[in-house]
Amino acid sequence: MAQTTACWLLLFLMVLPALTQRESRYEKFRRQHIDFPKTRSDLDARRYCNLMMQRRGMTDSVCKPSNTFIHGDPMAVDATCSDGGTYASENYYDSNTPFDLTACRILGGGSQRPPCNYRGRSTSQRIRVGCTNGVPVHFKMPL
Question: Is it true that domain 24-140 has CATH number 3.10.130.10?
Answer without folding.
Answer: yes
